[in-house]
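quick one before i forget lol
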Amino acid sequence: MPHVHTYDKDGKQLCCTQEEKIYSKAGASELLSTDHTQDDVHDHDHEEGDGHDHSSAGSSRFQMFLPALISLVLLLIAIAFDSYVKPDWFTGWVRVVWYIVAYVPVGLPVLKEAFESISKGQVFSEFFLMGIATIGAFAIGEYPEGVAVMLFYAVGEVFQTLAVKRAKANIKSLLDQRPDEVTILENNQAKTIKADTAVIGNIIQLKAGEKLGLDGELLSDTASFNTAALTGESKPDTKAKGDTVLAGMINLNSVAQVKVTTAYTDSKLSKILDLVQNAAAQKAPTELFIRKFAKIYTPIVVFLAIAICVLPLFFVDDYVFHDWLYRALVFLVISCPCALVISIPLGYFGGIGAASRNGILFKGSNFLDIIANVQNVVMDKTGTMTEGVFKVQEVVLNPKFNQADIMAMVNALESQSTHPVASAIHEYVGNVDTSIKLDKVEEISGHGLVAEVNGKALHVGNFKLMDKFAIVYDIDPASIVYTTIAIAYENKFVGHITIADSIKEDSQLTIDKLNALGVKTTMLSGDKGSVVKLVADTLGIKSAFGDLLPEDKVNKVKEIKARNESVAFVGDGVNDAPVVALSDVGIAMGGLGSDATIETADVVIQDDMPSKIPMAINIGKQTKKIVWQNIILAFTVKAIVLILGAGGLATMWEAVFADVGVALLAIMNAVRIQRMKF
């Protein structure tokens, strides 16, 4: 029987989604419970392929802590019976069984993990160490210590689960904000569906301001799109019927119809989901070192523990097996690398989660390390430091004409056009004056608009339109940097309007913060040199170059790298992909960024705000600081207590602190980055 997709009351697909496939592939399927509550399953890996899975599917916090609570209550009662109440019946096999019952809720899952690890050939795992230590404690009659070690270890695991879950929730909530619905036409009726259910051949109805979700073919006669995502430049592109339109293009004017020609799985949304969920696969050097260290370190401490127990037999006169076995078990518990193996990946994952919460997607923890030490930020201009949309910059009219009247007539005439220039003029002038009567309106392709107002000719377009109608003008169009709209009334040149891209509101803040961090800034653009210089001077960027081809940008970055300085490049267009790949850290403006650049980039800024660049650097610095704090804390405490344990000066209780206590402190420190404000 063929599988039928299921949906919830809101029309959300509950099965076989692209998101489901990606999450499962990335080992994050626990985030895909149908209710998507905060109590999704937790799954984390201490080592590659160890199969460690603390599943808590559908569990509340109370349910997660319940085994530990049961053990704690039973342990406290037992300690009270042993030390204070001392009932006659709490002896012998009753006492042993009581402690075993207290041990089972927290110990059995760990022992199960240990057997599973051994079956996979990974003998020396943390579960193995904990199992030996606690079973050994029972063997020599140290029942409270045996239960306590496993109890605190279980509590540490729950806190770790909650910490990881919170970081993953940050990432997932961010991804859920991505637009993934399209409006299709069926029998001339508009129907909103999930983008991943759209099939090749569907007709998408794209309203003004909407972003196209899939690649397709334009069915409407004409439509204007913001193509900054694909070209790297802000000039709108007018498409004709039959032209190809791509995912990421934004419809600027009237409603358009697009026939789907590419599957959803190849869309930008799918690629972003993929890169985020695979972020855990790319480890930071520190994290990789700790993993390798743990694999070598763990068997060493097991053999040292055996040596501590056995070797004194040959050198100590009053050798007592029980005492030396206890020391060996204490040594084992202390030496367990939980604090390092848990907290360091959690620190990096916390950094990725904190960045995601702020609209910054890191493809891997290794890029957190790299960006923390970056010395140069090289950026594109259009779509990166500027808006990537047209706005009126300047209106220059002959004072002989009434500016308000002229602009009102221009606004009325532009209302007859779907060109993005018209939108810029409407935004500047305001509502169209409906009392202005237009006659003989004509749009001349590639030139502009012509009409009669009050029986007098009105021309609005480029200077080719002026030349076509032999209208004399007294300025040099080449001397004007920006896109220019020429105006003539009664066959007399009235003046011009300049329309250009505008600097993003937070661009200045971005440069100021980068300067404060001691990071050098450079602007590279394919736009006119004069425009680039203007933007650079406005923002205070000392090094700026325009009229560059993609290969020129690559050469400029190579020049910086030749000075043995690290480089982060920020771009948004396909033309930026080569230089993004060359840089130490490639940053893509993801909101409008092209698929090619997003795939090539190491960091993706979701909302296109350049101020997220220094924020990403700061998050990298804070993450690295916390990771090293955890490393120093773990090694220092463990070294001290190990020496004390080997000398018989530390008991199992100190061992519990050295292992689980330090792990909890490290986890809490790692979680701290998720609460920071950047």
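fyi Residues 450 and 459 are 5 Å apart (CA to CA).
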